[in-house]
Design brief:
Distance between the termini of chain A: 32 Å
Strand content of chain B: 5-15%
Helix content of chain A: 40-55%
Largest interface: A-B, 40 and 46 residues
Order of helices and strands of chain A: HHHHHHHH
Number of strands of chain B: 10
Mean pLDDT of chain A: 93
CATH architecture of the largest domain in chain A: Orthogonal Bundle
Mean pLDDT of chain B: 94
Largest sheet of chain A: none
CATH topology of the largest domain in chain B: Rossmann fold
Number of domains of chain B: 2
Low-confidence stretches of chain A: none
CATH topology of the largest domain in chain A: Fumarate Reductase Iron-sulfur Protein, Chain B, domain 2
Structural class of chain B: alpha/beta
Strand order of the largest sheet of chain B: 2-1-3-6
Largest sheet of chain B: 4 strands, parallel
CATH class of the largest domain in chain A: Mainly Alpha
Order of helices and strands of chain B: EHEHEHHEEEHHEHHEHHEHHEH
Helix content of chain B: 40-55%
Low-confidence stretches of chain B: none
Distance between the termini of chain B: 45 Å
Oligomer: heterodimer
Number of helices of chain B: 13
Radius of gyration of chain B: 20 Å
Number of strands of chain A: 0
Shape of chain A: globular
CATH superfamily of the largest domain in chain A: Alpha-helical ferredoxin
CATH class of the largest domain in chain B: Alpha Beta
CATH architecture of the largest domain in chain B: 3-Layer(aba) Sandwich
Number of helices of chain A: 8
Chain lengths: 135, 310
């Protein structure tokens, strides 16, 4: 994939903000790919977890924010337990979700759970899902 | 002996079986479970970014209440509650800034007693004094295998059960400090203590799809199938879980799994406390087997079906 890199203040702000929110050093990643190898949702993703972190390193904000991977992470922390550099990828994902346009549409909100489905679902899943994916 | 117990929202509604079997089993081990007064939702998800710190308020309020009631230990069974409470507790113990901010926020709390209308204010700062334990840890460390064995009333005859840890119990290891994330033992030891044989299989700490079962049901169907199929291939007659969401994904979703994957023939899913309660002599009618989508009754026959089968 050919990408045009920019190294302006906008990119720097994006990287700093992700590091500040997640508390993780994204530049510790050396792209071994163990996070993606163990990810149970990798087959559904357009960008793999290691690709997300690479794009964050390069400051490619738009590509990261466009990815549907952000809403496929179940925060199961398999990547976290396997990362040889100790990066908690689930935190990086959460940080990226955090900076999505606050006026934009929720990826998933309470309104999308029908009353019939709500009757069947365990309470914890509705709380957890909305906490993760609604603003 | 009294022990503080946090059931969490789901155990009062969709996972009554987990709540009832926990209470019945612990009664037989001489433990009386006490719920903290006026407990609220734990938040279900531990906030992963520094700026969502307000997500710590709910679990800390519960823990502070336990401390104010004189409790030193809080036991939970639901993996989500366990993870949130344990991580929030650790955050307050380790991080002076979080401790200061959350306590400043919770200082304004007013609690009104529903009966006497007495108002409680001026709560003392909470600094992580309570110890959060999962019931599996409590059974292993505080009750102990010898005591469990001495109270067994039924012989489960080595029923092959696959323990399913899922995501929340084990990881992140540094914070959960529950067991080895890639080679856990606590669930296996529990099953062997109550007379089952623990099935070893590849997917016991894989994710079942978690909350994606609502936003992306197909992905959760597939993830749950992988777990169930792996357990079945190793000869398991049931899978046992600690979490109501794992239960939902693996039990209620089995109709969808069977439709999509023709090599799968169904496998009962049990809460670990149902097995414990049964082994300790609790009646079958009390175990909440009516909540199961995949019938599990045959596993609870007085004469195990293994004897009838060839």
């Amino acid at each position: 994939m050919r990408v045009k890199l920019k190294a302006g203040p906008e990119q720097r702000t994006f990287i700093d903000r992700i590091e500040e929110l997640s508390g993780e050093n994204v530049f510790a990643c050396y792209q071994c790919g163990r996070c993606s190898a163990g990810c149970p949702m990798a087959s559904e993703m357009d960008l793999l977890p290691n690709q997300i972190i690479r794009l964050v390193q390069m400051g490619l904000l738009e590509d990261v924010l466009r990815s549907k991977t952000l809403f496929l992470c179940a925060s199961c922390f398999t990547c976290e337990s396997r990362c040889p550099k100790g990066i908690d990828m689930a935190r990086v994902m959460e940080a990226v979700r955090h900076i999505l346009d606050p006026k934009g549409k929720d990826a998933f909100g309470p309104g999308e759970i029908s009353p019939e489905l709500a009757k069947e679902l365990p309470q914890q899943v509705m709380v957890a899902l909305c906490r993760k994916f609604a603003k | 002996m009294k022990l503080h117990y946090y059931p969490g929202c789901t155990l009062k509604e969709k996972a009554v079986a987990l709540d009832i079997s926990t209470r019945e089993a612990m009664k037989r081990l001489d433990v009386e479970l006490v719920e903290p007064e006026g407990w609220t939702c734990c938040g279900a998800e531990y906030p992963l970014t520094e700026e969502k710190i307000v997500g710590l308020a709910a679990p800390i309020r519960v823990l502070r209440q336990v401390r104010d009631e004189g409790g030193e230990v809080l036991v939970t069974t639901c993996s989500f509650c366990f993870a949130v409470l344990k991580r929030a507790n650790k955050a307050l113990r380790d991080d002076p800034l979080k401790r200061k901010r959350i306590n400043a926020f919770l200082r304004d709390d007013i609690q009104i007693d529903p009966l006497t209308k007495a108002r409680t204010t001026d709560f003392e700062d909470y600094n992580g004094e309570v110890q959060v334990l999962h019931l599996l840890e409590y059974l292993r460390d505080r009750v102990g295998t010898p005591k469990i064995k001495s109270r067994l009333k039924r012989d489960l005859k080595g029923l092959a059960v696959a323990p399913y840890y899922g995501c929340r119990l084990l990881r992140p290891q540094e914070e959960m400090a529950f067991d080895e994330p890639d080679a856990p033992r606590v669930f296996e030891d529990f099953l062997e203590a109550v007379g089952c044989s623990a099935v070893d299989y590849a997917f016991k700490q894989e994710c079942c799809g978690s909350y994606l079962s609502v936003s992306l049901p197909d992905a959760a169907t597939e993830a749950s199938y992988r777990v169930l199929r792996a357990a079945q291939m190793e000869g398991a007659r049931a899978v046992t879980v600690t979490c109501p969401l794992c239960f939902y994904n693996m039990d209620s979703r089995q109709a969808a799994i069977k439709e999509k994957f023709l090599d799968f023939s169904g496998l009962p899913v049990l809460y670990f406390t149902q097995i414990l309660a049964w082994a300790l002599g609790v009646d079958r009618e009390v175990l909440g087997l009516g909540e199961h989508a995949v019938p599990a009754d045959s596993l609870f026959e007085e004469v195990p079906t293994t004897e009838v089968r060839t």
